[in-house]
Prior knowledge:
Elements (H helix, E strand, L loop, with lengths): L14 E6 L2 E6 L17 H14 L3 H13 L10 H15 L2 H7 L22 H17 L1
Antiparallel strand pairs: 1-2
Helix pairs in contact: 1-3, 2-3
Amino acid sequence: LFRSRGMRCRGPGQWREVRMGNQVIPLYMPSDPKQLDKPLGDRLPLMEVIHRTTKALTDHNQMPKLVDAISSMVKEPESPSGRIREDRFRSVLEETAAQVLEPEEMQAVFPHFRKQDGTDWPVSAGKPHGGPRQKARASLLQMQHTAKG
């Protein structure tokens, strides 16, 4: 019989990998696989956060910082199996981006990003983006701006 040498077809399936260039980041599976890459509150799916972060850092020519941060994270795994929790990976992405990006750019990549005093950054009144809450907030800011002027 012919056996495929492709994907594995047995085993626990408790491992997933994110590949960025030539880097491989082994991640734990979420406790509920149905929640994989679904937004949770104001958190974007992991793949979208990775895309936005790499795009923003590429625009600033700072990808080597992210590559170094990810390399050091992978060298210090959380378990003997070498896997890393998604929250830790997200925090490495956020910490690295915060060193380079302006606060408004951080808000676009990480919608939950707050000012030092805990308040939200204002959404640009000229270009509403995101969901209905952000669009409503942008139109409110625009009305307030025109009422002052």
